[in-house]
Design goal:
With 58 residues, the chain is mainly α.
Length: 58
């Protein structure tokens, strides 16, 4: 006969070190997203600054 597992267990409480590492991770991710956005905007501006391509059927 199987033993009744009882009520579902709660996840263990976060330790201060885990909370700090989570905050550091979120800060790194935010910085990476900002850098990615800056890079994409720079690429878009560079594409807009290029002269228009002549029409190949022209």
């Amino acid at each position: 006969m199987a033993k009744d597992p009882g009520p579902p267990r709660k996840p263990p409480p976060e330790r201060p070190a885990a909370a700090a590492s989570k905050a550091e991770r979120e800060a790194r991710l935010a910085a990476a997203l900002r850098a990615n956005l800056r890079r994409r905007k720079a690429q878009a501006r560079a594409r807009e600054a290029l002269p228009a391509k002549p029409d190949p059927e022209g």
